[in-house]
Design brief:
- The chain is an alpha+beta fold and about 350 residues long.
- Helix content is about 40%, strand content about 25%.
- The chain has 13 helices and twelve strands.
- The chain has helices at about 10-20, 50, 60-70, 80-95, 115, 120-135, 150-155, 170-175, 190-195, 205, 210-230, 260-280, 315-325, and strands spanning about 5-10, 30, 45, 75, 100-105, 105-110, 140-145, 165, 245-255, 285-295, 300-310, 335-345.
- The chain has a five-stranded mixed sheet. A four-stranded antiparallel sheet has the order 9-12-10-11. A three-stranded mixed sheet has the order 3-2-4.
- The relative contact order is 0.10.
- The structure holds thymidine-5'-triphosphate and magnesium ion.
């Protein structure tokens, strides 16, 4: 039997901010953009649990957050702080895992099948992990323990903040049945909406659909995922991955803009900040992606993969701007992002010839 643990930090960005600024403690804290008295732009990245009492949530427009919680403290994200903190936490987690898969800045899967051997010992390991993260990083986390990644992740979310939730093989059905389909990793708002239109809201509802029906409606891979997830089945392995997946920056304009100079200058600035982080990471990237969000919120990404890896600023600027010119529509832009990924540790050649 496998024993898989999912560890997820509580209100991660907000908790890092509270640790650095004890004066924020006990007050609603929103990390995201400056609300500018209700006229600001951008969205909430996250907020602490005090702010959640007012209904504030991740991904909500900052103006809406401000309406719900005008007296909250609003801060902009400090990514280097979260990245450094995350790296130290992953180091702690690695000690306890046979295999560790970093799934995001604040979450990881641990395969502890061999080292724990039983759910009882796995719980003790989870308690040790929580204690060490609290002592060393002054942060709390929630832990889910089960027989696969799918259920472990649902379990870590079940008793937030600070909970440890164990779901054994026999308990899976009762645990997942009442949950909303959105709790399945891979089910986003679109799939959720489509299922809702079919009268499916909970995992119990979902389990009533046949594999054939699901594949007809959602295609092979999503259909198969939905069919298996509704039964608590997930055979995917915990995959050791130590590399950072991507590095990048994005910016929401003060006012939606179609001023091409302003957009290009912003790409330059975002590229510079991105390269600073790339140099710190000592990595070389092959793929460059830009993200464009239009004023009506439609969002597109466009990528180009180079022949050889680089960490060159000019290359990034040129390719990002080329992607922009090629794909931009005649509409006002709300947000723009620059991101690099597909990393390797070796540089081959630092020159523009590769473009
Ligand atoms: P989550 O783990 O989803 O959220 P959280 O840690 O803030 O809160 P919870 O206690 O419910 O786990 O995401 C981790 C971080 O990722 C979060 O602190 C901020 C960032 N994030 C965004 O920037 N935008 C988003 O829409 C979400 C969901 C998260
Ligand atoms: Mg979290």
């Amino acid at each position: 039997m496998r024993i898989i643990m999912h560890v997820d930090l509580d209100a991660f960005y907000a908790s890092c901010e509270e640790r650095e600024h004890p004066e924020y403690k006990g007050k609603p804290l929103i990390v995201g953009a400056d609300p500018k008295g209700g006229t600001g732009r951008g969205v909430v990245a996250t907020c602490n649990y005090e702010a959640r009492k007012y209904g504030v949530r991740s991904a909500m427009p900052i103006t809406r957050a401000y309406k719900l919680c005008p007296n909250g403290i609003y801060v902009r994200p400090n990514f280097p702080l979260y990245e450094e903190t995350s790296a130290r936490i992953m180091k702690i987690l690695r000690k306890y895992a046979d295999k560790l898969e970093i799934a995001g800045l604040d979450e990881a899967y641990l395969d502890v099948s061999r080292s724990a051997g039983s759910f009882k010992i796995a719980k003790e390991i989870a308690e040790k992990i929580k204690k060490e993260i609290l002592e060393k990083e002054k942060l709390t986390c929630s832990v889910g323990i089960s027989v696969n990644k799918l259920i472990a992740k649902m379990a870590s979310d079940f008793q937030k903040p600070g909970g440890i939730t164990i779901v054994t093989e026999n308990e899976i059905k009762d645990f997942i049945n009442p949950l909303g389909v959105r709790k399945i990793l891979g089910v986003g708002p679109k799939t959720e909406q489509k299922l809702k239109e079919m009268g499916i809201e909970t995992i119990k509802d979902l389990a009533k659909l046949s594999k054939k029906q699901l594949i007809e409606e959602f295609g092979n891979s999503m259909g198969d995922l939905l069919y298996k997830s509704a039964r608590g089945i997930d055979e995917s392995e915990v995959i050791e991955e130590q590399e950072i997946k991507s590095i990048g920056r994005e910016y929401t304009f003060e006012k939606d803009t179609d001023n091409i100079d302003e957009i290009l200058n912003t790409i330059d600035k975002l590229s510079e900040e991105t390269i600073e982080d790339v140099l710190k990471s000592k990595l070389f990237f092959k793929t460059i992606t830009i993200k464009l969000r239009y004023h009506y919120f439609e969002t597109h990404t466009f990528s180009k993969t180079l022949d050889i890896p680089t960490n060159d600023l000019e290359t990034l600027k040129i390719v990002a701007k080329e992607l922009l010119r090629k794909h931009i529509k005649d509409e006002k832009i709300r947000l723009i992002g620059v991101r690099v990924h597909n990393f390797s540790e070796k540089e081959v050649q630092k020159s523009l010839k590769m473009i």
